[in-house]
């Protein structure tokens, strides 16, 4: 058996250290230990280290361990792949302090200022450590081996890594275990594999590692990286006090070789390059190179034109993962600390619940919205009658496509298999699926756990797979063809989007069900906008797991999301097979009908593709449904009937927007507000076309100032003063007139509210006007963000009126006030309202058309 403990050559530089010799004397010496490729396992390495220590007159506490190889050499650890995520301040809180690009210094509470210089193999004894840590520079190149061979931790020390240059990097980090009450004393000395993640750090970002967190060192995600390694003063003090050198176990520093502790698994992380590309951290050519390399025996062919008369649509493909898990094996966890208990009930029960209840719930959800899905199924489930009955019904009655998803999601997938073993595994899985559901000319495949090998794509192509979901790159499909010129085999690859995957968003990023649905909705709407503007179709696969998306709270939010999206003009819901057929037929006529089609045709010829399964259920839309508007916003998108929506423009008058007005008299610069005029004008025109109620407000007072309070008069003595163009803040004067670009229509059809205070509701009849018009939602534009806009939105919230504030249509004389004001509105799950952008409102209103 090939020894799995081989690691690449590197160098550990040890500082000048004081230690105890045999005679008890204190002496200093410098040691540099080369860690080289070795095939003898940990025992030979430990023996060599012990030998070196004896030469120095020292005893070692490092001991040998039993080899994890069996006597016949056949034992083969299973691969356990950890998840990769984009590092953020929020998701690294449990393992350290995130350092973002542009930070000038690290938080003083951490106690680690940055060095002014970089020293290689710095000498602790001679360095001046008053305020600065040791800072070393390392350069790392890409390597194909994604095995996690070593992990280390320091309970009393702190380390940090900062990426230099323009390349991102990956660091494996795990939550501390030393203080975990749910672990045994022995288990606290080792990492918890269920709480390990690979974090991709953008260029010029880094992390200060929390004490006790498990970690390795940064590795490349494609391009070479250079990083700084930081040690705190406390680390220096501890190293100076070391009594012996031991690169694996000494004092507070503990470094464990994974193959010694976990003899039955090999820890790996997925290839980070496609994920880094999907996050926009790598250039396009990086992913192209990766695809060619990862798809040995195949050639990538770009799709130039496809989609027929749906070529300006986003094609949305719901992918329902119906997965088998061995009851007591590793897998996604709702209670990670119970992974090793026997019998394991919480996690296996949660996953099993998904297939029994979650699948049914998702089936009912998509049936309600007349959407056919692609279910990718673990072949081990063909023995589960309850799951099979549900899938057969969905295929028969709801036109679901059934694809293959390997054998199960517990055994490590394809990683580590030889080409022959993988070929057999694929053939067995396809045979079971086709036997259970009938042979098809088309077959969709998703490799379990992204455990692809260099041979996977070619083997799947040769096995007859026509649609592949193994790649996350792009928002467009591409083909893989056989390099064998004599073969005309090809398969269409669809982007299995990580940005919309329920596992990534809910379990990894800890989004609430509402936040998850909002993120998916925004993703789809943005792609719809891009496709409409470019005239080129895009694709997004919605990866959903029965035990995640199939839970009641998530289904509840997805139901509302699908209702909102049902009225989009260029969203085509499709199965993976239908998209593949569309790509393969350049004369493709009609795509899978969108939900908002006035009538779904029952003729398959409308689709122009042999094998495409149209949705046959007829659904006509009422006039009331045609009036629904859906707007992406934060913290969550919302929908409403246009008859219940009004546009309010707050205080867009000369006194605030122009020189010589009241704002300038107070010492402000009116030009800082005028950049919003163009965006508001576009929103106003769209609202007029859509027939929305339009309300203009202006802050002004009676000519005799009878409505000016004593307090306001005291604080604002300029009110009523004539500055040459008229009296400031007085009705009928120049300053109270609306700026020409945003003035009400002359026909009197738009409501004007004169208000004596900051809020548009204070001492006005605005609430009565809205009630009479049955308006319960306001799109808010105007100035200034932190004063009159905020006052109006807060008052509206107290009256049960929903507000959506357009960030690019509001402004302040002070940028920082605007920023904080906007954040406050959507904070705490939208305590005062929602925040959006003019482009989303214009897009939503344009889909409604003119109101008759």
| Count of individual beta strands | 37
What is the name of the CATH class of the largest domain?
Alpha Beta
CATH T-level fold name of the largest domain: Rossmann fold
Helix content: 25-40%
CATH superfamily of the largest domain: Isochorismatase-like
Ranges with pLDDT <50 over ≥5 residues?
Answer: 1-74, 102-132, 244-248, 284-294, 586-625
Tell me the strand percentage band.
Answer: 15-25%
SS field, number of helical segments: 22
Class from secondary-structure proportions? alpha/beta
Rg calculated over all Cα atoms = 32 Å
Short description:
Homodimer. Keywords: Lyase, Purine metabolism. By secondary structure, this protein is α/β, with parallel strands linked by helices.
What are the salient characteristics of this protein?
five-stranded mixed beta sheet, TIM Barrel, Rossmann fold, six-stranded parallel beta sheet, alpha/beta, 37 strands, Jelly Rolls, 852 residues, globular, disordered N terminus
Describe the 3D structure:
This protein is α/β, with parallel strands linked by helices and 852 residues long. It folds into three domains: 78-274, Ureidoglycolate hydrolase (Jelly Rolls, Sandwich); 310-401 and 461-586, Alpha-Beta Barrel (TIM Barrel); 626-848, Isochorismatase-like (Rossmann fold). A six-stranded parallel β-sheet has the order 34-33-32-35-36-37, sandwiched between helices. β21, α6 and β22 (374-377) form a beta-alpha-beta unit. α11 packs parallel to α12 (552-565), α17 runs parallel beside α22 (838-848) and α20 (785-798) packs parallel to α21 (815-830). It starts with 9 loop residues before the first strand and ends with a helix. The relative contact order is 0.07.
């Amino acid at each position: 058996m090939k020894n799995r403990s081989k690691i690449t050559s590197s160098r550990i530089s040890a500082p000048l250290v004081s230690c105890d010799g045999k005679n008890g004397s204190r002496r200093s010496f410098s040691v540099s230990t080369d860690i080289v490729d070795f095939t003898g396992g940990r025992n030979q390495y430990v023996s060599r280290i012990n030998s070196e220590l004896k030469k120095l007159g020292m005893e070692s506490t490092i001991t040998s361990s039993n080899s994890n190889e069996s006597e016949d050499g056949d034992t083969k650890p299973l691969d356990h792949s950890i998840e990769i995520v984009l590092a953020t301040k929020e998701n690294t809180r449990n393992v350290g302090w995130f350092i973002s690009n542009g930070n000038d210094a690290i938080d003083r509470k951490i106690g680690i200022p940055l060095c002014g210089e970089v020293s290689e193999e710095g000498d602790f004894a001679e360095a001046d450590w008053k305020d600065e840590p040791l800072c070393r520079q390392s350069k790392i190149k890409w390597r194909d081996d994604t095995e996690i061979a070593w992990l280390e931790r320091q309970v009393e020390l702190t380390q940090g890594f900062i990426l230099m240059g323009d390349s991102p990097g990956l660091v494996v980090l795990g939550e501390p275990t030393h203080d975990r009450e749910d672990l045994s004393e022995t288990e606290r000395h080792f990492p918890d594999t269920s709480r390990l993640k690979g974090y991709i750090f953008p260029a010029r970002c880094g992390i200060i590692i929390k004490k006790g967190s498990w970690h390795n060192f940064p590795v490349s995600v494609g391009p070479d990286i250079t990083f700084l390694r930081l040690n705190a003063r406390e680390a220096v003090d501890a190293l100076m006090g070391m009594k012996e050198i031991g690169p694996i176990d000494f004092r507070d520093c503990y470094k464990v070789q994974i193959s010694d502790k976990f003899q039955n698994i090999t820890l790996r992380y997925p290839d980070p390059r496609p994920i880094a590309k999907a996050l926009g951290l790598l250039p396009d050519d990086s992913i192209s190179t990766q695809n060619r390399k990862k798809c040995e025996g195949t050639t990538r062919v770009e799709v130039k034109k496809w989609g027929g008369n749906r070529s300006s649509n986003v094609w949305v493909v719901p992918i329902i993962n119906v997965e088998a898990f061995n009851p007591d094996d590793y897998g996604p966890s709702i209670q990670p600390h119970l992974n090793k208990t026997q019998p394991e009930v919480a996690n296996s029960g949660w996953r099993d619940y998904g297939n029994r209840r979650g699948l049914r719930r998702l089936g009912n959800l998509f049936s309600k919205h007349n959407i056919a899905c692609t279910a990718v199924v673990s072949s081990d489930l063909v023995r589960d009658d309850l799951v099979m009955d549900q899938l057969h019904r969905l295929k028969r009655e709801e036109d679901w496509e059934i694809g293959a998803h390997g054998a199960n999601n517990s055994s490590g997938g394809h990683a580590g298999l030889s080409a022959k073993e993988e070929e057999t595994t694929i053939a067995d899985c396809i045979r079971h699926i086709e036997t259970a559901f009938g042979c098809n000319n088309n077959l969709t495949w998703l490799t379990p756990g992204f455990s692809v090998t260099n041979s996977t794509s070619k083997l799947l192509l040769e096995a007859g797979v026509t649609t592949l979901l193994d790649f996350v790159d792009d928002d467009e499909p591409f083909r893989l063809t056989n390099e064998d010129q004599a073969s005309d085999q090809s398969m269409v690859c669809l982007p299995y989007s990580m940005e919309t995957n329920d596992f990534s968003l809910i379990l990894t990023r800890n989004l609430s069900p509402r936040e998850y649905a909002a993120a998916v909705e925004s993703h789809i709407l943005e792609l719809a906008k891009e496709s409409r503007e470019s005239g080129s179709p895009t694709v997004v696969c919605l990866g959903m797991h029965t035990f995640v998306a199939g839970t009641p709270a998530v289904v509840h939010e997805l139901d509302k999301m699908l209702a909102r999206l049902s009225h989009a003009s260029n969203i085509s819901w499709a199965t993976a097979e239908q998209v593949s057929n569309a790509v393969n037929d350049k004369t493709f006529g009609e795509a899978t009908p969108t939900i908002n089609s006035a009538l779904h045709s029952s003729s398959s010829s409308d689709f122009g593709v042999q094998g495409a399964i149209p949705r046959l259920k007829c659904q006509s839309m009422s006039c009331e449904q045609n009036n629904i508007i859906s707007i992406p916003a934060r913290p969550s998108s919302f929908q409403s009937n246009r008859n219940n929506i009004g546009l309010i423009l707050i205080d867009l008058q000369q006194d605030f927007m122009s020189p010589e007005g009241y704002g300038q008299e107070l010492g402000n610069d009116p030009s800082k507000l005028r950049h919003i005029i163009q965006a508001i004008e576009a929103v106003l025109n769209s609202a007029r076309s859509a027939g929305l109620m339009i309300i203009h407000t202006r802050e002004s007072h009676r000519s005799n100032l009878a409505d000016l309070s004593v307090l306001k008069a005291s604080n604002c003595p300029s009110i009523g003063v004539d500055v040459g163009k008229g009296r400031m803040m007085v009705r009928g004067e120049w300053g109270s007139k609306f700026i020409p670009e945003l003035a009400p229509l002359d026909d009197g059809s738009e409501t004007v509210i004169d208000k004596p205070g900051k809020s548009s509701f204070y001492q006005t009849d605005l609430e009565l006007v809205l009630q009479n018009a049955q308006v319960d939602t306001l799109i808010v534009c105007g100035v200034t963000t932190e004063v009159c806009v905020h006052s109006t939105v807060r008052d509206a919230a107290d009256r049960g009126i929903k507000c959506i504030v357009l960030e690019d249509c509001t402004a302040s004389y002070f940028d920082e006030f605007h920023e904080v004001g906007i954040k406050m509105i959507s904070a705490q799950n939208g305590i005062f309202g929602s925040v959006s952008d003019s482009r989303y409102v214009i897009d939503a209103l344009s889909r409604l058309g003119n109101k008759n």
